[in-house]
């Protein structure tokens, strides 16, 4: 009975973490992009949007750690890691999602706060502009293209639990 209660708790944590991993920072990013386009990069409103966006990134990354931890907990408790559908899920997570999250953590939690802690009325220097461009043009756009497809594939694997043993 206790194993079922732990599993249910882990599943709730897992689904809740998925929601907090995907939702708030994506919404904050869309608002930030709209404000940058409408108002420009160097405005008080855009800087406020950046500060809120960075806070949502922190929430996203905490949720991602909880998502991974609860997933490992459920796999260890119930499924075991020898299930083909779970192995494919882990392959997607480890090859696509984790590298993107590492880049997102580096830029979103380390580089962006550094830029905004040194920002002055004159705006950004060339290095700061390049960092912002790399983050917005590459990291977030690749993530926005890759993560939804990956999550849908993972959801299909989790729900259908197909026998994919022949593909190994």
How many distinct helices?
4
**What's the SSE pattern?**
HHHH
Alpha-carbon Rg, integer: 19 Å
User: In oligomeric terms, what are we looking at?
Assistant: single chain
Low-confidence stretches: none
How is the biggest beta sheet arranged? none
Strand segment tally: 0
Shape: elongated
Structural class label: mainly alpha
Strand content: under 5%
Cα end-to-end separation: 35 Å
What share of residues is helical? over 70%
Taking all residues together, what is the mean pLDDT? 88
Topology:
Layout: H1 2-39, H2 44-79, H3 84-118, H4 126-160
Could you walk me through the main structural features you see in this protein, from its secondary elements to its overall organization?
The chain contains 4 helices and no strands. The model has no long low-confidence stretch (mean pLDDT 88). Helix 1 runs antiparallel to helix 2. The longest helix is centred in the first third of the chain and has 38 residues. The chain is mainly α. The radius of gyration is 19 Å and the shape is elongated. 86% of the residues lie in helices and 0% in strands.
């Amino acid at each position: 009975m206790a194993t079922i209660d732990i599993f249910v708790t882990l599943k709730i944590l897992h689904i809740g973490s998925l929601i907090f991993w995907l939702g708030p920072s994506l919404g904050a990013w869309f608002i930030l992009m709209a404000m940058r386009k409408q108002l420009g990069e160097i405005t008080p409103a855009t800087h406020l949007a950046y500060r809120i966006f960075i806070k949502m990134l922190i929430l996203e990354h905490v949720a991602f750690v909880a998502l991974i931890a609860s997933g490992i907990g459920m796999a260890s408790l119930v499924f075991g890691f020898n299930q083909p559908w779970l192995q494919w899920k882990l392959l997607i997570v480890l090859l696509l999602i984790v590298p993107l999250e590492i880049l997102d953590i580096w830029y979103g939690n380390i580089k962006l706060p550094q830029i905004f802690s040194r920002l002055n009325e004159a705006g950004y220097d060339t290095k700061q502009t390049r960092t912002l461009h790399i983050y917005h043009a590459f990291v977030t756009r690749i993530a926005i293209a890759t993560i939804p497809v990956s999550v849908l594939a993972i959801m299909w694997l989790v729900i259908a639990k197909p026998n994919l043993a022949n593909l190994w």
